[in-house]
Amino acid sequence: MKNIRKYIPISILLFSIFIGIFFRFYKIGDSPVGIYVDEASIGFNAYSILKTGKDEYGKFMPVMFRSFATFQSPVYTYLTVPFVYLFGLSSFSTRFLSALLGVLSIPLLYLLAKQLTAHVIPGFDPESRKAWMPDQVRHDNLSTKLALISAFLLSISPWHIQYSRTAYESNVALFFLLLGSLLFLKSLKKPWLLIFSTISLAISFNAYRAEILIVPVLLVVLVFRFYKVITSNLKLFLIPMILSALVGLLLIAPTVFILRTPGFQARTTSMNILSPTLQTTWGYLDNTSRLGKIINNPRLLSVREFISLYTSYFSPRYLFSLGDSGPRKAYPDFGTFLVWQFPFYLFGLYLLVKEKEHKGLKTFILVLLLVSPIPAALTRDPYSTLRSLPMVIPLTLIISFGLSKFLDLTWPYLNKSKYLILILFIFYSSVRMFISIFYHHDYFRSVYWNYGWRQALDVVPILDPKLPVLVDNSHGDTYIELLFLLNYDPVTYQRDNFEVQNTEYYTNMNRNKTKNVGRFTVKNFQWGIDTDHVNQYVIADNITIGAVQIKEHNLSIVKEIQFPNGEIALRILKTAPKK
Amino acid sequence: MKNFILILSILAFIIWPLNFFRANPQLNLEPQTIFVQDYQGRQLILRNINLYPNVYLARLFQNKAVIVTNKYFNNLFNILDLNYYFFGSHPREVVGGLNYTRLPLLTILPILWFLFITQHPKKKTFLLSISIFILIISFFINHYVYDFILWPFFLLFIFYGLEDLIKINLNFSTIFSFCLLIETIYELAHLIS
Which residues are CB-contacts of A67 (< 8 A; sequence separation ≥ 6)? Predict the structure, then answer.
């Protein structure tokens, strides 16, 4: 019996990883249906780097990818190159990295939680390096339980699954943030690991914009927290620290150099609540009196809006009920956490304040919890789960903390039905999520995942090859869908489409509004010019070309592509020019 | 000092009733519970049922009880949302009956201080009572009409929180109380305009 018990923790961890693999890899290429333009951009640019060493605009190894002049962080794209090489350019290969790092985050959180809750045997100074030596550290019952529960809750976290199944940079940044933190803690025993910790944190810094703020703050707090451990063994730490600083500066230098370029700042400025606004500040009242000048003070209103946005990241309403309002960023009928976790969230928060032990865990949770929403709260979107993704870790740890303490308190009083209750919870949550991810999300949200382009391109080979095809671009950068789905030759594309000189890559925000992709011309569709004078095919959505207009302009429908819910996604039409 | 913090607590508190009557000029106290017939909710359930791989799963996850429990949890989470009290819901979010500030933002400090730090002999009674009220109010769709029941509790939380803060650090508490006074005046100016 004792032998069997020894294997229970590892079995639970393996089970969590298995669940994690299932929810992150199952049908990853097909669900979400379609591929969003940002994902297509990452995939095609990785393909272009693989084939030519340059991105779609012809820039050799860019520090940030220009990508629709929004400037994407480079790490995801570069790390995707090997998967594109192995599996070819597809939704699967583009999303593979995110899913892989999502799965790896599960054991990583387990190790991190264990490391953070490691007890120091009484009699040793907890601040000295000796206290962190393996034989002086023990993992108590709570430590293992907390680590296992955290790993399991992360494996079924709707928030984490959402970003592990899609090609978003923030998930990659989160993985390296976790890895860097774990290596930092490990480096207290083995100082040379500090270099690897720095490399990991520097990758995280470069991987997503929110981490530009989060990583330095976390690093400062960790160094401050273990200041005594480091200074008491300065001889051992000195060389690794100097090397780490050099490596870290070297790795973040390219990003730092372009921080002030218009390219880097374009998106930040347009989203920032503190920048001069195009819309009225939240809370503005129509009042021209002297009182109005005070109550409508833009700085006061902006600060008020920031605090309101910031507190929304702790709101149980968003966390357990509403979730992200962005249709690509949440599963239908799901908050960011499962409803039954709410009492444990409250209990965990209470324990976090009250508990005197586990200072390392508390520091880590508090820093990530308080800092992660800041970059997100500086943007206009209320409750952006994408920008605040690192919060999933402290919140999962808080819920796990509450749950493990609850189990400690109630376990002896529960009979064998406790296992049944646990299994029912797991089963209910998992099945509900399975339905939401693989049925409801694809049915209700396909429109937001650019569904239909793959199906439309399947029809193209049967069209008259002599006629050109116009693809409407008025509702997003559809050219990237074509490049991605056709596995279009990057060399040909770079030759046929010029946007800016390499020297102006980060500074010139002008965009080329017409793209040439083989027989396809991608531009904004215009009535009359594109319908009445040219004999061609047109591919457009139902908003651009409605049923009434088809009749008015004498267009003939070649093929209609439908969303899974039966609504029209795209139409392939043939013009009939007036003679 | 005790009188000052009492006056300050009440002053900070005036905002709630003033804003409440301004936001709800035609007050309708008729209770609307989560158990009322919901045609739209049923239609949604019927639509969703068709999207399940089999009828057993559909019955498990889409039934009449789901309509009620969803409403209950929505209300509960609304009432437990900090923004509900300090900002009248979230930026640019228009929610009928909820869009008014109930408390000045700075009162969050004495409230949280009382909830997490203060050792008060009646703290458990207060917390148990307010929890029961919150759980009951969540049964009402128009809970924003009844959340007035929570009003005296918050007043006590602010009062005892401030009192405790003063005991610990008088200088900080004096500066804080002054800031709270200014913010309260600012919020009242919002009301008058």
Answer: A38, A41, A45
Measured between CB atoms, which of A282, A311, A314 is closest to B92? Answer: A282
Q: Which residues in chain A have Cβ-Cβ distances shorter than 8 Å to B57?
A: 431, 435
User: What pLDDT, on a 0 to 100 scale, did the predictor assign at position A579?
Assistant: 62
Facing residue for A315 by CB, picked from B61, B74, B81: B81
Question: Are A76 and A207 within 8 A, CB to CB?
Answer: yes
**Residues of A numbered 286-325 whose beta carbons fall under 8 angstroms of chain B's beta carbons: which are they?**
287, 289, 291-292, 294-295, 300, 304-305, 307-309, 311-312, 314-317, 320-321
* Token pair of B107 as six digits: 């009162």
Min Cα distance B30 → chain A (Å) is 25
- Residue ranges of domains in chain B: 2-24+31-37+68-192
Contacts of B83 in chain A (CB under 8 A): 308, 311-312, 315
Q: Is the ipTM of this complex over 0.95?
A: no
Please say whether the beta carbons of A105 and A178 come within 8 A. Answer: yes
Q: In chain A, what's the furthest Cα-to-Cα distance?
A: 97
- Would the pLDDT of A380 be above 50? yes
Task: Count CA within 13 A, CB hemisphere, residue A521.
Answer: 15
Best probe of the B interface among A273, A278, A308, A434, by most B CBs < 10 A, is A308
Encoded tokens for B150: 């929570």
**Which one of B34, B62, B66, B81 makes the best mutation probe of the A interface by having the most chain A beta carbons within 10 Å?**
B81
Q: What is the mean pLDDT of chain A?
A: 88
Find the closest chain B residue to A288 by CA distance.
Answer: B193
Instruction: Kindly identify which residue of chain A lies nearest to residue B80, measuring between CA atoms.
Output: A316
Phi then psi dihedrals of residue A497, to 5 deg: -130, 110
CA distance A40 to A56: 12
Q: Give the orientation angle of helix B108-116 with respect to helix B151-168, to 10 degrees.
A: 80
- What beta strand segments (E) does chain B contain? none
CB–CB of B22/B191 below 8 Å?
yes
Angle between helices A211-225 and A169-187 (to 10 degrees): 10
Q: Does residue A167 sit in helix, strand or coil?
A: coil
Give the tokens for residue A182. Answer: 């774990």
Burial class (CB in 10 A: 0-12, 13-18, 19+), B191: middle
How far apart are alpha carbons A568 and A543 in whole angstroms? 10
What is the per-residue burial (b if ≥16 Cβ within 10 Å, else e) of B46-77? eebeebbeeeebbeebbeeebbbebbbbbbbb
Among the partner-chain residues B91, B116, B190, the one whose CB lies closest to the CB of A305 is B91
Q: What would the pLDDT profile of A232-271 be if each residue is shown by its tens digit?
A: 888 889 999 999 999 999 999 999 998 888 888 877 777 7
- Length of chain B measured in residues: 193
Q: Which residues contact B43 (CB under 8 A, 6 or more apart)?
A: none
pLDDT band, residue A134 (cuts 50/70/90):
very low
Chain B residues with beta carbon closer than 8 angstroms to that of A289? 193
Instruction: Convert the pLDDT of each residue in A106-119 to its tens digit.
Output: 999 999 999 988 75
Residues near B9 by beta carbon (within 8 Å), at least 6 away in sequence: B155, B158, B159, B162
